[in-house]
Amino acid sequence: MHSKNKGGKNKLITFTIATSKGVKTTYGVAKTDIAKKKLLPVIQEMRHAQKEKREPQEFIDGVSYDTASERKFLIEMGALVSENDDPLIN
């Protein structure tokens, strides 16, 4: 799931990380370096799990962004797939 944040003047990337145990944590960050620090290990786990054909321990449940540059950042990181803007899913 993805959406564009509406309203407000602070630009945010918001994302939810879920665990295999069903725990979900949502983050709202204004800087891409903070988002990268939180998302990169999750993206790596998702890709590793996909290669091993198993369920990931953590996965991205949803993301939202305000600007085209944030969208591009998320696609480049692998948090979104460009075809349909869905989070990377194994």
In a few lines, what is going on in this structure?
By secondary structure, this protein is of the alpha+beta class. Helices cover 34% and strands 27% of the residues. Strands 1-4-2-3 form a 4-stranded mixed sheet, with helices on one face.
Question: Which characteristics define this entry?
Answer:
alpha+beta, four-stranded mixed β-sheet, globular, 2 helices, 90 residues
Q: Can you describe this structure?
A:
With about 90 residues, the protein is α+β, with helices and mostly antiparallel strands. The chain has one domain. About 35% of the residues lie in helices and about 25% in strands. It contains two helices and four strands, in the order E-E-E-H-E-H. It has helices at about 30-50, 70-75, and strands at about 1-5, 15-20, 25-30, 60-65. The protein has a four-stranded mixed β-sheet with strand order 1-4-2-3, with helices on one face. Strand 2 (about 15-20) and strand 3 form a beta hairpin. The two termini are about 15 Å apart. The relative contact order is 0.25. The model has no long low-confidence stretch (mean pLDDT about 85).
The amount of helix comes to: 25-40%
SSE-based structural type: alpha+beta
User: Main β-sheet, in a few words?
Assistant: 4 strands, mixed
C-alpha end-to-end distance:
14 Å
Oligomer: single chain
DSSP, total strands: 4
Shape: globular
Secondary-structure blueprint of this entry?
Layout: E1 2-4, E2 13-19, E3 24-29, H1 32-52, E4 58-65, H2 68-77
Parallel strand pairs: 1-4
Antiparallel strand pairs: 2-3, 2-4
